[in-house]
Each structure stands twice: as C-alpha cells, then as structure tokens.
Model the fold of this input.
Amino acid sequence: MGPVLGVGGFLEARARSLQGNPRPTSPGRAGPVRSSVAAPDCCGGLGNLDFRKADLCIMTWLLGYVDLSEPHFVAAVLAIVFNPLFWNVVARWEHKTRKLSKAFGSPRLACYTLGGAILLLNVLRSHCFTQAMLSQPRMQSLDNPAAYHVGLALLGVGGVFVLSSFLALGFTGTFLGDYFGILKEARVTMFPFSVLDNPMYWGSTAIYLGWAIVHASPTGLLLTAVVALIYMVAIVYEEPFTAEIYQQKASQAYKRS
Done:
C-alpha cells in the first residue's frame, strides 16, 4: 500500500518555498552548507566513471548536502521505516489470530479500520518528509524550471499509478484485505498491473521523487532512496506470504470439489 502526499503538506511547502525566507540557524551551530557550493566531483568525473561505483558515489554526493542528525530528517526516516513494518506486523497477526476481526465484529470492518490507520500514518509520513526537506538547504543544480517540470511530471505519473492501483484493487484489496480472509477471485491484471508489478509502491516512490525535485531538495532525494529501499524490503517480505494465502485458498477449494 503506498502513500499519497497530504494536500496540507503540499500547500505548506509551496507557500514557504515561494516566500523565499532563509532557514534560521540554531544558536551555537554552524550554518548549513549552501547549495551554491559545488559538490565533490563524483568518481573522478564522467570520463572516469565506474558504473559499479555509481550508486555509492551518488549517495556520497547527496550526503554532502544533508545533515543526517537534523531532527526532522530523523523523524522522516523513522516514519518511512515504521509504516510498512506496522501494517505488515498487524496484518500477519490478524491472519494468524483473527483477533481484529473478532474485536470489530467482521473482517471487513477490521480491514477498514486498519486501512484508516495506514492512511493517517501515511499523511504523517508525508508531513515529516516535507518538514525534513524544508529544514535543510536546496540544491542549486535542481533549482530551475526544467527540473521543476520534471518533478511535476513525476508527481503526475506517480499519482496515476497510485490512484489506478486503488481503483483496480478496491479498498480491501489495497489495504491487506487478503490477510483478513477477503480474497480476490482472480489475480488483478488490468492497468496498471499490466505494465508494472507493485504499481502502488512504485507510484508512491515516484511521487516522493517528484516532490523532492520540485523543492530542489537533496534531503528529499535521499529520503526517496530510503522509501524505495524500504518498499523493496516490503515486497520481498510480503509477496511470498500473499502467494501462500492464495495457495491455501486453492488447496481448500480443490479439497471441497
């Protein structure tokens, strides 16, 4: 299940970025590294680029702009890590015990409640992401109209994938209904699942990437990398378990026939 950025966070971030107010420096602390300062040359320049080291170089380059100990950044990382952990732990616990279904009187009501909690957590995550970007310097090389429009395009593409995934799966399909025993009759193959596996997760990642580029934020780029990494871990963790649920369904149907 992927997040949709909070509208409040978007308006807040755009208002503050248009004001152009510099970020205050905490007393007794050196000011932030200005984005106008050239970043270290990565991998000795493009002529000497070793693509095996490219990912590491990019991360090192971003780390030159980002204060990893800044409280808003730490809060954003914690929110990014916590959300998939929360919904996976709760959903597996429900699948094993059915205690949420019993507490709420039905699997659907329990699933709707968990889905609501996940949505609220995703709004909080998006707010933390935005605050982390606003609390650290912008990157001059991304602070231009071309990059801004690329960011908008990524926001649009990501939004299409997230919304179309939700429409294809429905609420219970999006919010782990299969862990509550609410199973689909057949695998969903319509768009966007016809062009991309896990489109909800990758659409959400595209939204965060676009959001970071729109704000010319190296902090946002680094946090987007964290989002992508956590989603990859979640996919590895979730897909075999979901497949097992449907295998159990098929086995039970075969025994009844």
The radius of gyration is 21 Å. The chain has a mean pLDDT of 82. The CA atoms of residues 55 and 121 lie 30 Å apart. The chain is about 65% helix and 0% strand.
